Amino acid sequence: MDAALFNVDGYAAVAEVTGGGVLDESSSQYIKVTTAAEFLAALNNIKYSTKTASTVYKVIEIAADLDLGYEEAGGAATTATYSFFTSANAPLMHPTLLTTGVSSIDIKAYNGLIIYSKTGHTIRHAGFNIKAGENLIIRNLTFDELWEWDELTKGDYDKNDWDYITIGDSSSASGRVWIYHCSFYKAYDGIVDVKKGAATGTTQAENGVTISWSAVLPGSSNASFMKDQ
Could you tell me the residue range of the domain that residue 59 belongs to? Predict the structure, then answer.
């Protein structure tokens, strides 16, 4: 078949995004996680600067729903272990988030990575900052429960600044990111924010960010979460 048939715009084709590549699940660079602790440990093992190439994780499969709020994922004790895991701005009103907390998780210092779920598992109570790396795929994940009513601004949602994903908010640039087949429920602020650091070079081929086949949905998959406040 003529390869030119597939030479189309979009799908990160220009930016040559391949993530971590096609790996067998038995590979030492493929990790399957089912808990918050396992997921954070996996993120700690994506850094080329601290690992040999054969032991750096290139594919992280999320095989269960993950509750990643700051308190429910270990709070200060976890931050002491993983500096990329910190508290986001503290919730003000929502009873669930007041208990779970909201975390801010950096995905950084990687070079070729896939984070995905085979069955669309859900990540709750966390925002991700993609920075200081390139060539990332986020696939088939659901993001939920990152919202509360802001009485101070009557719904303008500026104070807490919670976004599900932020790309490029860093002194070190980050590019070649492909987000697809993901679902995003109502967020306090942004769904995916792309900022000025979302670039690793001077040409389109070095900088691409693609979001495709993803859904932005109202409310929450958990009806009681929206009603509790």
Answer: 17-227
